[in-house]
Amino acid sequence: MFSQKGLSLDQAPPISVVFRFFLQGASFGILGGVLLALYQNEIFDPASKGALVLTHVFTLGIMLSVMLAALFQMLPVIAGVKLTSPAKKANWVQYPLIAGILSLLLAFHFGKIAWLYLLASLLLGGSLLFISFEMIKKLLQVPNHTSSSKGITAALFSLAILVIAALYLTATLGGYSEGIHYVQIKTAHYSFGLFGWIAVLIISISFQVIEMFYVTPPYPNFANRYLSNGILFLLAAASILSFFLPDIWMICHLILALLLSIYAIITLKRLSKRKRPVSDATVWFWRLGLGSLIISMLCFALGLFVQTAWIHALAYLFFGAFALSIVFAMFYKIIPFLTWFHLSSQGYFTAPMMHEVIHPKTAKKHFWIHCSMMTAFIMSLIVPQLIVLASLLTVLSFGWMGYQIIHAHLLYVKTQKEGHKFSMNA
Amino acid sequence: MIISHYMKHEHRLCDDYFAKAEEAASKKDWEEATKQFEIFAHETLQHFKKEEEVLFPAFEKQTGSTEGPTGVMKYEHEHVRGLIGKMAEAILDEDVDAYLSLAESMMILLQQHNMKEEQMLYAMCDRVLPVATKEETLEAMKQTEL
Ligand SMILES: [Fe+2]
Ligand SMILES: [Fe+2]
Q1: What is the second-level CATH architecture of the domain B3-143?
Q2: How many domains does chain A fold into?
Q3: How far is the CA of B48 from the centre of ligand 2 (A)?
Q4: Nearest CA in chain A to B73
Q5: What radius of gyration do chain A's Cα atoms show?
Q6: Chain B closest CA to A47's CA: distance in Å?
Q7: Within an 8 Å CB–CB cutoff, is residue B1 touching chain A?
Q8: B85 in reach of chain A (CB within 8 A)
Q9: How much is the ipTM here?
Q10: Measured in Å, how far apart are chain A's first and last C-alpha atoms?
Q11: pTM score of the predicted model
Q12: Which residue in the set B101, B111, B113 is minimally distant from A215, CB to CB?
């Protein structure tokens, strides 16, 4: 009936699961920075292999990793879903996932090696379909759905659909299929990926955490109730109709751009009405992310009518800025809170406080690194050489993130080893 | 929805005092911070008392289970009580950094707790308790003082 356990230790996954997936995301981020130095401005040509590789470093390597970290952590808390043996499931997902992402990147880079596509399909298809169905199964059993748990279910459905679409694409690229519907499936694949998976997941999580972390007025009902499922419905309808009406995606994308912009405006408004006036770096990350989403959607909508390369480039860059900013906004709350919470629940009265795990000033510095990185990317559309700076700043940004995770982990282990503990069951 | 309505209102009230205390502390206005924090602590503990002594027993009696949701809520109350003590110390020491850090943990802990109550526990109380019991419970909560 009700989630039987609260935010208590036996129900939360081991903290290592969260640390590991975040670290995976940070490592792929560093890899992305390095690859950027290799491909350079080629990435702005959507037909290039550099664009294909970098897009998947971003979506699979970075976004998917941290979103899995967030899901493993948040499903129990915000949806009352308890995954059985989370640590084991995390293993089953994590190793095939890393191997799968690397083989996919290699396949994209080298182009025509059929077995690499096959290997990537097996590893990624297997692990991602497994975990998405596992989570969906648990979510469908939840009796009291909140807007968040409904949205997360919709996002996971999108993940499953986009993976299935991807299998068709890799089969075509690997020469295992003729790919008659390649174009339609590809559009469905990235639309479900960017809108149905990334955006809907961020939206559903924000329904809960914006109110929770910043104490804001609640979201209006129409957003809360219908947005996530509405986006999923639009995507599904457009995917099916596109076999008969190829232009349907344009209408669908236009509506999606409008919906996401409205969402961003509503959320920015919540933030401006928050009761806690103290504004830390995470508030700024949210603002930057939502602002970027609006710009991205504007460019995206414009790009539907004009075929100007830089408008498309801006739409993708700002979408990346949106997703990454939200990731960092969540990261700087989740890591310190979890470290403190796990240790203090275990009874350590020497548990480090949130600010001792990651000081707000550290997060603020990262905010500026992140802003500089974004600026370098955008400026490189005008001054191509700046892409090298963007690459360096990407490495720095994710290196920074990785360092925070390792630091928190070491602090955690140290407290467990040396800390003083209350004996609770005396 | 009379239970949800009344209890949600109390949650929001506590949030207000909490935010005022936090703002004052961030400006090192310790006199104001102390004043607002004392109200926050008093209101929060009184609210917990209403839940633990009136609402939860009524719910447990109706559903016949003393474990499950109410057990979890009480466990989380203990955690919050511990933090209130630490925040009071930080105010006495006039330690801004410690206060803001504890405040951060407190807010996340308390908000996720309140959300679970509002979205699930209170909603269930409003659903399963007979009307007469609900009115009695509400009246009893209004009379409860720390
Ligand atoms: Fe409570
Ligand atoms: Fe409460």
Answers
A1: Up-down Bundle (1.20)
A2: 1
A3: 6
A4: A6
A5: 21
A6: 45
A7: no
A8: no
A9: 0.82
A10: 32
A11: 0.90
A12: B111
**Residue whose C-alpha is closest to residue A412's, from A19, A76, A74, A67:** A19
Give the domain extent around A280.
Answer: 4-412
Query: Quick check: is A425 in a domain?
Result: no
Neighbouring residues of A245: CB distance < 8 A, sequence distance ≥ 6? none
Contact A387, A341 (CB under 8 A): no
Minimal C-alpha gap between A389 and chain B (Å): 35
Q: How many C-beta atoms lie closer than 10 Å to residue B140's C-beta?
A: 15
**Which residues share a beta bridge with A421?**
A348
> Considering the domain boundaries, does residue A419 fall inside one?
no
Give me the helix-helix angle, B56-63 and B69-92, nearest 10°.
Answer: 170
B115 close to A (CB below 8 A): yes
Per CB-CB distance under 8 Å, the chain A contacts of B107 are 212-213, 215, 276
Distance, CA of A84 to chain centre: 23
Tens-digit pLDDT string for chain A (426 aa)? 333 344 444 456 788 999 999 999 999 999 999 999 999 999 999 889 999 999 999 999 999 999 999 998 888 776 667 778 888 888 889 999 999 999 999 999 998 899 999 999 999 999 999 999 999 999 998 777 788 889 999 999 999 999 999 999 999 999 999 989 999 999 999 999 999 999 999 999 999 889 888 888 889 988 888 999 999 999 999 999 999 998 899 999 999 999 999 999 999 999 999 988 777 899 999 999 999 999 999 999 999 999 899 999 999 999 999 999 999 999 999 999 999 988 988 888 788 888 899 999 999 999 999 999 999 999 999 999 999 999 999 999 999 999 999 999 999 999 999 877 765 443
**CATH number of the CATH domain containing A397:** 1.20.210.10
Provide the β-strand partners of residue A348: A421
CB-based contact B119 A144, cutoff 8 Å: yes
Q: Closest to B68 (Cβ–Cβ): which among A2, A146, A341?
A: A2
Interchain CB contact of B15 with A (< 8 Å): yes
Whether A10 contacts chain B with CB within 8 A: no
Residue A87 forms part of a structural domain: yes
Domain boundaries, chain B: 3-143
